């Protein structure tokens, strides 16, 4: 049974999963990885969800405030052996519920064109394309999306 735990970036299971995510992204992003990595630090993230299957950490996600009325979804990852089983969707839905409980109206996120499975997940979850924001303006590989949660 899947168990979702709300935590912070101090959670050691979250940190282990993020290290695996960063390894995956370094391969996918190639030479662009350094650019993206600078925006994905996990220090002091107060809103983290870790997914457990039989006490094994198998997936994670987080958010941080983006604007007074919106959060940015960050650090979404599921171990390869557990993909395609609804784990990422469950983590994302829990992050959205948490953001809504904290009275945020929307979630935004950035993903890459080299992560088509992530784009499909977000589209399936109701996210719509939005113009690239902040540091992603003018970055061809970046895909930015937004969803209302209010």
TrEMBL record:
<dbReference type="Pfam" id="PF00583">
    <property type="entry name" value="Acetyltransf_1"/>
</dbReference>
<dbReference type="InterPro" id="IPR050832">
    <property type="entry name" value="Bact_Acetyltransf"/>
</dbReference>
<keyword id="KW-0012">Acyltransferase</keyword>
<keyword id="KW-0808">Transferase</keyword>
<dbReference type="InterPro" id="IPR000182">
    <property type="entry name" value="GNAT_dom"/>
</dbReference>
<dbReference type="GO" id="GO:0016747">
    <property type="term" value="F:acyltransferase activity, transferring groups other than amino-acyl groups"/>
</dbReference>
<feature type="domain" description="N-acetyltransferase">
    <location>
        <begin position="3"/>
        <end position="150"/>
    </location>
</feature>
<protein>
    <submittedName>
        <fullName>GNAT family N-acetyltransferase</fullName>
    </submittedName>
</protein>
<dbReference type="InterPro" id="IPR016181">
    <property type="entry name" value="Acyl_CoA_acyltransferase"/>
</dbReference>
């Amino acid at each position: 049974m899947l168990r979702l735990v709300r935590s912070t970036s101090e959670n050691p299971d979250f940190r282990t999963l993020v290290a695996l995510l960063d390894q995956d992204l370094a391969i996918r992003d190639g030479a662009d990885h350094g650019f993206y990595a600078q925006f994905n630090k996990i220090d002091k993230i107060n809103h983290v969800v870790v997914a457990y299957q039989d006490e094994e950490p198998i997936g994670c996600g987080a958010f941080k405030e983006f604007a007074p009325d919106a959060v940015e979804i960050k650090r979404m990852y599921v171990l390869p052996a557990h993909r395609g089983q609804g784990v990422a969707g469950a983590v994302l839905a829990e992050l959205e519920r948490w953001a809504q409980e904290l009275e945020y109206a929307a979630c935004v996120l950035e993903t890459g064109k080299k992560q088509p499975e992530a784009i499909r997940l977000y589209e399936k979850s109701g996210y719509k394309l939005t113009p690239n924001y902040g540091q992603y303006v003018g970055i061809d590989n970046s895909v930015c999306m937004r969803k209302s949660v209010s």
